[in-house]
Amino acid sequence: MATDTTPERPAPPAGDAPAPRPARTGDPAPRREGAVVNFFSQGFLWLWALAVIIPVLWIVLSSFKTSREIASDPLGLPEAMHWQNYANAWSNGHIGDYFINTIQVMAFSVTGTMLLGAMAAYVLARYEFFGNRIIYFLFAAGMMFPVFLALFPLFKTLQNVSLLNTYTGLILVYIAYSLPFTVFFLTAFFRTLPTGVAEAAIVDGAGHYRLFFQVMLPMAKPGLIAITIFNIIGQWNQFLLPLVLLNHPDDAMISQGLANLALRQGYEGDAGALFAGTVLAMLPIFIAYIIFQRQIQAGLTAGAIK
Amino acid sequence: MKHGRYPFILSFLALPVGLYAWLVVLPFAQAFQISLTDWSGSSNSFNYIGFDNYANLFKDDRLVLPALRHTGIILVVLPLVTIALGLFFAFMLNLGGRSRQGRIEGVRGARFHKVVFFFPQVLSVAIVGILWKQVYAPENFGGLITGALTAVGAPAPVNGFLADKRFVLAAVIAVLVWSAVGFYLVYFSSAMASIPRDLYEAGIIDGAGRLQMFFKITLPLLWDSVQTAWIYLSIVALDVFVLVYMMTPERGGPDTASEVVGGVIWKYAFNHAEQAFASAIGVVLFFAALTLAVVSLRFGPRERIEY
Asked: Which A residues, 96 through 135, put their C-beta within 8 Å of a C-beta on chain B?
């Protein structure tokens, strides 16, 4: 990951503290220019930081207000902590059920994506055979397809094999639609692994399968972790696919369930429960983000950086 | 090691390739086929009608033409604004700091800014949609911006920003930029970190200001990353729909003022039961994406600069 300051020096002390070295012979002109630029860059950066923080914080505050307060006093602090919103979101809004649904599906879909993706990528990266390039290209091209185009035929395909409105169907679809990026990225990763270790293992008599599971997979761990994070976030946030492929409201995934809650809020006017539900849905992502922010940033931008 | 090579390859590829072919490649191929028919999607009968759907597509000034116009606008504005802001912030974070003894360095709190800026990227579109719908809401529903505008005595749209034809598209684009900037900030930052510091120090000795250094050193060296970002954002722009679905009245309104191509495909496929027509629009979108990727790869930057 990028470092913010020059790597060869220890990080400079934060703040306006004088430079550690007493050299004060620098030109005064660039010094002043530096201060002005510093002031402006800090200003703009803080402006954007606030544009991110304020809406999020505001929804968190609003989730503790009564629905009447939300409409009448949007800018104020909640009069009292209205925890009832959270109880409503959890029980009437079924946010808790949607959580469990999503975790159930993702336990299989993420594992499946990583296993199938790693298998395909490994073979494509390390074995020469007829059709190798075509299969690789077919996977890579999948990253560009607009998913709308496939939604209806996909709906019909699942209907024909009675997998519509089932988690099995959704899991298979999640895996299939996560494969292009996973294969594309992991193929590049497997190509960079050194051949020496593999050759040594072959000399020791390891077969193709043992070579993959006991030598190559452990060596590919950094790439696998980055792409697992990418897939977890992508599938957790998936919205269109469950919207089309799961029709029973009780089975909904978290994003879809939240959208249903938003729709119902339009009729019932319980904005407090909606915001509480939104905060609940945001919370696990937020906690995971704070703990793993470096890995998440690396994982999500990994695809772009080759 | 030649032994058992092909059975191994086959056993590793069969499942992923089979699943991918069945659930991704085949549905896309079927969509192409459907676009040449008059299939409604619900019955089992259909006729092949050639390219009629494509011809009619450009006559549909009720939904398709406004959608093409709006998606076109997003396609230009979203990459332009996001990349400009991403580059600007990345430059500020990495090189905008006070220069001490002629050195260039990152600003204070760069780590913090990165963490904050990137956060919208991990939020689902559903959450972002709910969040911003309320931020843009009319004053009597407790909107943040309308409330703040009224509080300082400025005029605010009575029905909020999303129910106003003049503002709705800009409001949607602003949210798209809001979610995307952090990603490109981090992306450009890592690219900038790989530019050797000597180049900047040499620039300082030659008396270059920060602006000059940005345009003469940073930008040319980042051109590859900018190009990649452009392709990514273009694909995002073509796929915009869920946010419109979550935020706007009538899922593209008011009065088609925020209609996008993805939404029109959705409406024809799932609301109007005109599956063939919806597929034709999708195929056009597909070729638009393909053309974009090819063009930007073909006519992108000049030769690569080695350093």
From this structure: 116-117, 119-120, 122-123, 127, 129, 135
| Total-model pTM | 0.86
| pLDDT given at position A304 | 53
Contacts of B102 in chain A (CB under 8 A): 26-27, 30
Shortest alpha-carbon distance between residue B166 and chain A (Å): 22
- CB-facing half-sphere around the CA of B172: CA atoms within 13 A: 32
Question: Could you tell me which chain B residue has the CA closest to the CA of A1?
Answer: B190
Instruction: Give A286's contacts in chain B (Cβ within 8 Å).
Output: 119
Please give the Cα distance from A31 to B262 (Å, whole number). Answer: 52
pLDDT tier at B1 (50, 70, 90 boundaries)?
Answer: low
> At which residue do the structure tokens 């709006």 appear?
B70
Burial class (CB in 10 A: 0-12, 13-18, 19+), A20: exposed
Structure tokens at A66: 């009564």
pLDDT of the residue at B72 = 94
Cβ of B96 within 8 Å of Cβ of A179? The answer is no
**Rounded CA separation A163/A102 (Å):** 17
Bridge partner list, A149? none
- Contacts of A12-19 spanning 24+ positions with Cβ under 8 A: A12/B100, A12/B105, A14/B108, A14/B109, A15/B108, A19/B100, A19/B101
Q: Is the ipTM of this complex over 0.90?
A: no
Mean pLDDT of B143-154: 88
Give the per-residue pLDDT at B225: 87
Measured in whole angstroms, the distance separating CA A202 from the mean position of its chain's CA atoms is: 37
Q: What is the DSSP string of A80-141?
A: S--THHHHHHHHTS-HHHHHHHHHHHHHHHHHHHHHHHHHHHHHHHH---TTHHHHHHHHHH
In a mutagenesis test of the B interface, which of A148, A253, A291 is the best target, namely the one with the most B β-carbons within 10 Å?
A148
Q: Provide the pLDDT for residue A19.
A: 39
How far is it, in rounded angstroms, from Cα B91 to Cα B126?
31
Q: How many CB pairs under 8 A join A and B?
A: 306
d(CA B245, CA B263): 7
